[in-house]
Amino acid sequence: MTSTSSAPDGGGARDDGLRALLDGFSECGATPGGGVTRLCGSPADGRARDLFARSVREAGAELRTDAVGNQFGIFRLTGTPGAPLVMMGSHLDSQVRAGRFDGTLGVAAALRVGAALRAEARAGAAFAADFCAVNWTNEEGARFRPSLIGSGAYAGRHAAADALDIRDDDGISLGDALAGIGHRGGDPAPPLPACYLELHVEQGTVLEAAGAVIGLVARNWGAIKIDAAFCGEQAHTGPCPMDLRRDALLAAAYAIADVRTIAEGWPGRVHTSVGRILVAPNSANVVPARVELSVEIRSADDAILGAAGARADAALRDAAARARVDLAVIARTERPIRHLTESVRDLVALVAEEAGYPALSLDTVAGHDALSLLGRCPTGLVFVPSVGGIAHNEAEATTDHDVQAGFAVMLGAARRLCRAGGVPKAAMRGDAR
Ligand SMILES: [Zn+2]
After folding, report:
1. 50: CA distance to ligand 1 center in Å?
2. Residue 84 burial by CB count (10 A; 0-12/13-18/19+): exposed, middle or buried?
3. At a CB cut-off of 8 Å and minimum separation 6, what does 317 contact?
4. Which stretches within 39-155 are classed as H helix?
5. What SS3 class is residue 4?
6. How far apart are CA 104 and CA 102, in angstroms?
7. Ion ligand 1: residue ranges with CB closer than 5 A
8. Cys bridge to 351: 16, 170, 206, 412, which one at CB 3.0-4.6 A?
9. Euclidean distance between CA atoms 74 and 103, whole angstroms
10. Could you give the percent of the chain with pLDDT greater than 90?
């Protein structure tokens, strides 16, 4: 067994088991470049899920896997059936050639917080809420789109049956992929928690630039995501006269450049991208007949986001017209700008202050599972620094010091919440020790 103890630098609890658990997860889908490729529903995802399940059982907690494969580890602290839950977690799936900490840190920290609190309960500490560690299915949206599928289903934002029917680019459904790795569950998900907290790496440079260790997310940037297809006509790249061509890839090229230009209208306030493209038939000798692409627009200002989104819509239409092809919008979703729960932020700020890491308030530009829970229950999102802001890259890193600081703050917040029945305001008044 590994131990949780006081850190020598006064920064609160230090957990040796957390490093071991992170290393264990890092082996699942490890890449030669030091990162991970752990797409949702892949064998590597299956191995990481097996490790989650093993960790839950070894800590004496109850494992549940719901219909969309969300894994819940329920750590009984109260002995009271129906006691409120404090939930903490993130995701174990990753992008291709991604970092080891994205999502995984939040899951591993939650498992270790659960184990620590359960040990305290066994030693006689009194709690008024049970604790739940969670691994949400398909946060990344890398293999199955959209992102946040598991947490969204849990929060009632879409039906589980619809989520299971979503197909990857090879036509394999999420349901079949989960069944293939033995993690399509049938257990009832636990009820909505009294409070949800997520620890995640920042994936940006705000904390590093400020010399801060703990980031407290105040609000999320909004996002507009458009999946579109240009449909032209397949032809021979040699003899077909240029003026007769209806080249779907040419339309995509116009659109990609124009979407990039949109960001220049609001420097620093709008982020745009085209990160995914599928070309059919994708042969050097064939004028492409169909090209599918994924456009993203992000901003922290509602009015700007709306205007930039409208420009993206127009850019797609104009690109289709210029290349004389048809445009089909497959999906268009909007993620609203919202604030994380103030009482949870206040609690985490207090615990961080006590641990010696004054929290810095910041935005999240990226989406996280916490945003699925936000509005359903009091929700908090906590960041620790990413070295150089590197993210969705094998070189992504967070120092051991910062990992332990994040863990100490999450454990402190969870302990107070579980003592206070999961109510953040009551937890503010509780004893930190
Ligand atoms: Zn993540």
Report:
1. 19
2. buried
3. 327
4. 43-58, 104-122, 149-154
5. strand
6. 5
7. 102-103
8. 412
9. 19
10. 95
| Cα 201 to ligand 1 centroid, rounded to whole Å | 8
The helix/strand/coil state of 133 is: strand
User: Domain 222-335 is of which CATH architecture?
Assistant: 2-Layer Sandwich (3.30)
CA distance to 240, 293, 325, 412, per residue, from 285 (Å): 11, 21, 19, 62
The rounded Å distance from CA 138 to ligand 1 centre is 10
* C-alpha of residue 98 to centroid of ligand 1, in Å: 10
Ordered by start, the domain boundaries in the chain are: 4-221+338-429, 222-335
CB 312 within 8 A of CB 262: yes
How close is the Cα of 368 to the center of ligand 1, in Å? 6
Nearest of 193, 153, 2 to residue 68 by alpha carbon:
153
Question: For residue 66, which of 162, 191, 173, 186 has the smallest C-alpha distance?
Answer: 186
Angle at 151 (CA atoms; ends 313, 368), nearest 5 degrees: 60
Query: Tens of pLDDT along 30-51?
Result: 999 999 999 999 999 999 999 9
Confidence at residue 68, expressed as pLDDT on a 0 to 100 scale: 98
pLDDT confidence of residue 14:
79
Q: Is 127 helix (H, G, I), strand (E, B) or coil?
A: coil
CA of 204 to the centre of ligand 1 (A): 12
How many C-beta neighbours within 10 Å does residue 110 have? Answer: 28
Q: Which two tokens stand for residue 69?
A: 């494969």
First-to-last CA distance in the chain? 23
- In this prediction the pTM is 0.91
- The CA–CA distances, whole Å, from 238 to 55, 242, 281 equal 60, 9, 16
Q: Mean pLDDT for the chain?
A: 95
C-alpha of residue 233 to centroid of ligand 1, in Å: 39
Q: Is 429 exposed, middle or buried (0-12, 13-18, 19+ CB in 10 A)?
A: exposed
Give yes or no for residue 72 having a pLDDT over 80: yes
How remote is the C-alpha of 123 from its chain's centroid? Answer: 34
Ligand 1 centroid, distance to 430 Cα (angstroms) = 31
CATH superfamily of 4-221+338-429: Zn peptidases (3.40.630.10)
